[in-house]
Amino acid sequence: MADVGSEQVIVTKFLLRTCQSRQMLNDEALFAVTDTTDNEAIASSFKTHCMFVTTGSVAEFYIQPMLSCVGDLDEMWHFSNQLAIPAGTAPPTELPDEFDSYVQVCEIVDSEFPGYVYLVSSYELRECIDDGKYNVVEYQHKCISYIVKSHGPAEVTVGTATALPPGVGRLVGECQSVDKVYCARSLSWPPQAADWPVRHRNYDWPDSATVSRVVSNGCDVVQVAHRRCRRDEWMNTH
Asked: Which among 30, 31, 45, 55 is most buried, taking Cβ atoms within 10 Å?
């Protein structure tokens, strides 16, 4: 009988050595491009706008599959009037153009569970017309509330691929399930994840250059509760 572990190693090495960057957008990626209307409509109700990023297999799969992917589409998006910073650090006075003139700043505060944090609203940034920099206004600290989703942190919607270009379609059907994950953008890498860049990685993937690029881009704080807190009324109502 063949060694199953050896077969997995052989297949993994083959994929790592032969997969090349895709040369064309698949139908899931095209659907993501056409799906921004709903996001902007929701953002407009908050009198702001959102930054939209496609994640998951659509963004990370390096090869063009022979068959359409059966899985759903993953999206992460955050509002342009909210920013997360590590607790104890000074709020920035300059921000990328994607942010609004008024930005709520939340500190990333440790919780009793490793890998889980609280967002505490602490400051507001107000852009100065003269030089484009932001003035910092300190607020009374208050934890940000959120609603625990039944499907983890994602809001699940089902759409159709009718807006796709002619000749592009899904072999698995007309419907496309979309997982939308709301998050707070942080422009810096948090100390809670300090061990991630240096932890052991099998097959040296991702390589050090990719890890450095990820860390330099900051992180996104996702709204999700620890399994021991999912029924905690305080987490849902305050």
From this structure: 31
Write b or e for each residue in 61-76: b if 16 or more Cβ atoms lie within 10 A of its Cβ, otherwise e: beeeeeebbeebbbbb
The pLDDT assigned to 44 comes to: 53
Contact criterion met (CB below 8 Å) for 76 and 58: no
Tokens 């934890």 — which residue?
Answer: 143
pLDDT at 14 over 60: yes
The residues with which 23 forms a beta bridge, in sequence order, are: none
Residue with tokens 């994929």: 15
Cβ atoms of 85 and 91 within 8 Å: the answer is: yes
pLDDT grade for 8, boundaries at 50, 70 and 90: confident
Give 165's contacts (C-beta < 8 A, 6+ positions apart): 30
SS3 state at 180? strand
Q: Are 72 and 179 in contact (CB under 8 A)?
A: yes
Q: What are phi and psi of 183, to 5 degrees?
A: -150, 165
The string of pLDDT tens digits covering residues 177-226 is: 778 888 999 999 999 999 999 998 888 888 899 899 999 999 999 988 77
Q: What stretches of the chain adopt beta strand conformation (E)? A: 50-55, 73-79, 82-86, 102-110, 117-127, 134-143, 154-160, 175-186, 219-222
CA distance 205 to 86: 27
For 201, counting Cβ atoms within 10 Å of its Cβ (0-12 exposed, 13-18 middle, 19+ buried), the class is: exposed
User: Which pair of tokens denotes residue 217?
Assistant: 């881009």
